[in-house]
Amino acid sequence: MTEEPWEDPADEHMQDTAERSGPAWEGDGASPTSFLETLKSVLLAPTLMFQSMRREGGVGSPLLFGLIGSGIGALAGLVYQVVIGMLTGTLAFAEFAVQLVAAPFALVAFFFVNLGIRQLMLMVLGGGQRGIETTLRVQAYCTGSISILVLIPFCGNLLAIPWGIVCEIIGLSEAHEISRGKAALAVLIPIALCCLGFSVIVASTGMLAQYLS
Questions:
Q1: What single-letter DSSP state applies at residue 8?
Q2: 35 is in which domain, residue-wise?
Q3: Which SS3 state, helix, strand or coil, does residue 22 take?
Q4: Is there a domain that residue 6 lies in?
Q5: Residue 7: inside a domain
Q6: Residue 12 domain-assigned (yes or no)
Q7: What is the number of H-type helices and E-type strands within the chain?
Q8: Is the residue at 95 inside a domain?
Q9: Residue 183: which residues within 8 A CB-CB, separation 6 or more?
Q10: Taking the alpha carbons of 149, 36, 107, 56 in that order, is the dihedral positive or negative?
Q11: Which stretch of DSSP H or E encloses residue 169?
C-alpha cells in the first residue's frame, strides 16, 4: 500500500483493516470450526491466508491460536513418547513428568525468543516496517498450525519442520509486504547460525575428548 504524505494514518488503518479481514479465527470468533478453517488456510493456502491476515487488532487471539496448536502438538509428542517407551520397555515416568510440566514454559519461552530474533533480523534487513505485532501474528498462526502436523505418526516432525519454514517465509513476505528473498533470509540466517554453532561445539568437544585421551 502506497502512503501519500497527506494521508491520515487513521484512514490508512481503516483501509488496511477493510482489505485484511482474516483469518476466520478472528473474523468468525474462536471456535473449533474457525480453528480448523484457519489451520487449513495456513497449511494449504499460506499465500492467501497471510495476504488477508490482519496486521493489527491485538495479540490475544493469535497467541491463543498458537498456544492451542502448540499444546496439542506437544501433548501428541509426549503421548507417542510414552507409547514407544512402553513398547520398548524404556519408559521413564519421572522423565515424562518433568517434560509434561516443563513443556508449556518451554513453548512460551521458545516462541518469544524466536519472535525477538525474527523481528531483529527483519529490522536489520529493512523489512520490519509493519512492526512486531505483524511478526507475532505470522509466527503465532504458523506455529499453531504446523504443530498439529506432529499428530501424524512417525513422519509428523519431518513434515512440520520444512513446511513450517516455508509457511513462515510466505507469511512474513505477505504480511510485511517484502520480497520472498528478504523474508527467507530473516528465517534462514538464524537457523544457519544455530547449525554452525552446534557443529563447532560438537567438533570442539570431539577434539578435546581425543586430546584428553
A1: -
A2: 24-212
A3: strand
A4: no
A5: no
A6: no
A7: 9, 0
A8: yes
A9: 127, 168, 169, 170, 172, 173, 176
A10: positive
A11: helix 156-176
